[in-house]
Write a structure and sequence with these properties.
The protein is mostly helical. The chain has one domain. Helix 1 runs antiparallel to helix 3. The longest helix is centred in the last third of the chain and has 29 residues. The protein is extended and about 55 Å long. The mean pLDDT is about 90.
């Protein structure tokens, strides 16, 4: 069984995280120019958005570190992956609990 080359993994993480950062910045800029209500929503989520940007920057740094063959890159990518797994479960839990709160009773 042949595994993916480490260089390909580095490129995938670097490009994926770079794309996620660019998309996030584009969405935030778009919301900023969308009116005062959208800016209020952005202001209420500054901490959440900052943490998400930090996590994706961690993935970008890890991907670039793998490409440059840095010793710190693999633990950084592992931390990035574990963080994404936890965020997926938290997001699912939040969506399920909100949906269950809005389901009408019998």
């Amino acid at each position: 069984m042949e595994l993916l080359p480490l260089e390909l993994i580095g490129w995938l993480y670097a490009l994926g995280a770079g794309f996620a950062l660019a998309l996030g910045a584009w969405l935030i800029i778009g919301m900023h120019f969308n009116g005062t209500e959208a800016r209020k929503q952005l202001a209420s989520r500054v901490l959440d958005d900052s943490l998400l940007f930090g996590i994706w920057i961690l993935g970008l740094a890890g991907g670039i570190g793998v490409l440059l063959e840095k010793s710190w890159s693999r633990p950084v990518l592992e931390l990035f992956c574990w963080t994404l797994v936890i965020l997926v479960f938290l997001s699912a839990w939040t969506r399920i609990s909100v949906r269950m709160a809005h389901v009408p009773g019998p």
